[in-house]
Amino acid sequence: MSATSMSRRIAFGFITLLALAMFARPLLRGEVLTFRDHSDYFQPLRYFTAEEVRHFRLPLWNPYNASGEPWLANPQTGIFYPPAWIFLLLPFATAYVGFLFLHLVLLGCGAFLLFSRFASARGAFIGSVILMLCGPTLSMLDISNNLTTFAWIPLVLWCAMSNASPTLSGTAIAMSFLAGEPFFAAAGALMFFIIRRKNVVDVAVTAFFLAGVELIPFLAIIAGTDRAGSVPSEEVLRDSMSLPDWFRMAIPNATTHQQFIPIVYIGIVPALLAVIGMISCIRNRVARPWLLLLAVSIILAAGSFLPLIGALLAKLPLTIIRYPARVVPLGALALVALAVIGWERVARVMPFAWLPLAAIALIVADLVPRIAPLMQSAPFDAHPVPYDRNIGRDGKIVRIMQPHQGFDRRVWISGYLNLFDRRFDAWTAAPLVSEAYTKAYESALGRRDLLDAMSIAYILSPDRRGVVVHRNGGALPMAYWRDGSGHILRATSLAFTTSAVHVVIDAPADGIVVLTQQAAAGWDVEIDGKNAAWQRDGVFRAVRVSRGHHAITWRYHPRALMIGSALTIIAVARMLLSRKFVKRKWHEKNFEVDAKFHLMSSSAAGVESRPSQLRTKRTFHGEQHR
């Protein structure tokens, strides 16, 4: 085994142990992390998705939020992301923490490979430790789709620098897209194609096809959402980071103008090393690309603090960056790379054997106490909402909140908490929301008749005791018959799944049956087993029926999923049937046939000499290749 291979294995082992030590408490106790978005967003999202798949149901549609929304097309669900399948194998709490642990290990190992391209093994290891422990990285734990995608970026860049095969490079890029954060995935792919000069078309096609099963449905729903230029500029530029905020990355417990990254501290030692690395860029060409990445990150993160950049981000036809501070981890990656370069200069001047250990000890002692709030954990609760489970089961809920009001996530059923007990919420925490539905929802908050028409049966509002649930008796059923005179009749039965809706109605006359679920491409309807044409009723779906008893079935078959699935199948088949793969298997098969034929021949001829057998085997092998 070469010294390089040995040092790599040792580094990977220590990186794994370090990550394991960070997650030891929740793993040993069977707890989940609780900081910020863990509890009310990603845990119910992962739990709901895993429950559906575990029961052999592909969750194409979420009927419980925003009057229905595409679920599989939301990349954060990670249905086709292989590491997310851990939720199908382990208890939820263990799977949730283990999922984050695996990606921190991936980040550290990828960073070691990346930094090894321009630094010693010791320098690369120090850099990987810094990147794993620094505030901007671990601040993404509670927005796990950002962390899981960011974890692939060092490996993607390593593939670009090392001229890895198109298959490996394309797979790494595809995995970053499947991990759930399109912005980071696109940033990593862009950097890859800036660095790489060879096989770029092959890599691009491989990555696009492999990720097609998730990427195509995602792209298909963007056009009709708020991301298509409809996000208010104040929302786009919220959580911008000023230039002075970047200097606070070297100050413990410093506060910044943004809240997206709660801890920006990277450590005193890494900051000093990064300064040395920046100075070295005058003579060291390796440092210049990282300094450029840092500069681009600072400019983009400035958002509202740079009017020109803010106007550009706010007026893009597609909202690529919402919350400019999102790019801070990319800037942190650049700073850590510069710190590695700075370490190499220091190590040449001070070649002491104890110096790397001292540096790592100082880094760990400095960073671990700072990131402790991000690692808080508690037992997992699958029923955190403090209301009777019937609230939100026969009608949707809505919140009427006052500005600057105290906020209890569980009491207000924030995020995706409604998914635990499958309550219907008129709003959603999804990153993509239908523009037409958003306008209808906002209008309903100001008009009682529109509120009733949206089947909003429960209203959460504040009072002296905290939050009170009001029952809205005028809310229309979530499925009902209506005639031309406006008469309403509730459906006899209504059942939802994540790919279909079943309605039974006894229509007293000709009319339409309205289902207060969003109208979206991909839905088909059958009446009594026969295909029918459906129509829009505002933002909802409806179908005409004649007088009598009818069984109506809505099924969701998005065409984008079929196209994306076909692309992914083609990509996987191409990988399995690649020339190298086929050639290797063909060679192994023929070698075994030659060996068996030789043994049979030797046995018949009474040949017992081992040297003779070896010569005969090599002869067959040579003739085969000629």
What does this structure look like?
Helix content is 50%, strand content 13%. A hairpin with a 2-residue loop joins strand 6 (456-463) and strand 7. The protein folds into four domains: 72-375, no CATH class; 396-471, no CATH class; 479-560, Immunoglobulin-like, CATH 2.60.40; 578-625. The chain is built from 24 helices and 17 strands. The strands form five sheets. A five-stranded antiparallel sheet has the order 9-8-12-16-15, with no helix packed on it. The protein has a five-stranded antiparallel sheet with strand order 10-11-17-13-14, with no helix packed on it. The protein starts with a helix and ends with a helix.
Mean pLDDT: 89
Number of DSSP-assigned strands: 17
Shape: elongated
Distance between the termini: 33 Å
Radius of gyration: 29 Å
Low confidence ranges: 599-626
Overall SS class: alpha+beta
What is the number of domains? Answer: 4
Strand order of the largest sheet: 9-8-12-16-15
- Give the % helix: 40-55%
| Content of β-strand | 5-15%
Core attributes:
626 residues; alpha+beta; 4 domains; 5-stranded antiparallel sheet; 17 strands; 50% helix; 13% strand
What secondary-structure arrangement, pairings included, does this model have?
Layout: H1 3-22, H2 24-29, E1 31-33, H3 37-54, E2 61-62, E3 69-70, H4 92-116, H5 121-133, H6 135-138, H7 144-150, H8 153-161, H9 166-178, H10 182-195, H11 200-210, H12 212-222, H13 233-236, H14 243-247, H15 268-280, H16 287-302, H17 307-315, H18 328-349, H19 355-371, E4 377-379, E5 396-399, H20 435-444, H21 448-453, E6 456-463, E7 466-471, E8 479-482, E9 488-490, E10 493-496, E11 500-507, E12 511-518, E13 523-527, E14 530-532, E15 534-537, E16 540-545, E17 548-556, H22 559-576, H23 579-605, H24 610-625
Parallel strand pairs: 5-6
Antiparallel strand pairs: 1-4, 2-3, 6-7, 8-9, 8-12, 10-11, 11-17, 12-16, 13-14, 13-17, 15-16
Helix pairs in contact: 1-4, 1-5, 4-5, 4-7, 4-8, 5-18, 5-19, 8-9, 8-10, 9-10, 9-11, 11-22, 12-22, 15-18, 16-18, 23-24
